[in-house]
Amino acid sequence: LLSRSRPIVALIVTILAAAQPAFAPKKSDYFVDESKLPFTALPGATAYYEAALSLKPEETVFYRNLGNALAAQGEVGQARALYEKSLTLDPVQQEVSLALGTLLEREGRLAEARAHYEQLLQQCPTLADAHYNLGTVHLAEKRHDLAEACYREVVRLNPKHVGAWNNLGNTQVDLGLLDE
Predict the structure, then answer these.
(1) How far is CA 91 from CA 116, 128, 174, in A?
(2) Which terminal residue of the chain, N or C, has fewer Cβ atoms less than 10 Å from its own Cβ?
């Protein structure tokens, strides 16, 4: 999974480990002058997250951030594996659980996404975004009554959730229940 950028990660770690104290920012500095760094070509975000993971593999936030970056690049399978690894380290991460469910939806694995959200809601029954995402799965499966129930729960939990209000309207349109 991390092999794609392993040479870059190794280079970053080596350079940072060998950096002279002159390159380290003082406690009063907020920014590092990149022109004083011992390299000029900075890699993308994924290489930085991979470097962080190589230094502290038990830190779940690095798996999440790398997963988010890979998902944004369309590397859904790799992102899913990172989210799953993060959840094995700490199973109660709502943001990662929501991201994993969303990836399952993107892959067209609606039954798995539905089961994932249902399991998440057993742990966190007041998590409005999990109800919303479950409603979205139901809507994609043309299960309008279940989608509507999910969206109603979302607006009960968070009356300002505009996506839920909008999708309540969408379910009514799909059912042919238009205002007279």
Answers:
(1) 12, 19, 36
(2) C
Q: Which of 106, 139, 101, 75 shows the shortest CA–CA distance to 151? A: 139
Q: What is the per-residue DSSP string for the chain?
A: --GGGHHHHHHHHHHHHH--GGGSPPTT-SS--GGGSS-S----HHHHHHHHHHH-TT-HHHHHHHHHHHHHTT-HHHHHHHHHHHHHH-S--HHHHHHHHHHHHHTT-HHHHHHHHHHHHHH-TT-HHHHHHHHHHHHHTT-HHHHHHHHHHHHHH-TT-HHHHHHHHHHHHHTT----
Structure tokens at 51: 């470097």
Q: Is the pTM of this model over 0.85?
A: no
- Give the per-residue pLDDT at 4: 58
Q: What sign results for the dihedral spanned by CA atoms 143, 146, 150, 155?
A: positive
Residue pair 160/179 in contact by the 8 Å Cβ criterion: no
Could you report the per-residue pLDDT of 79-89, keeping only the tens digit for each?
A: 999 999 999 99
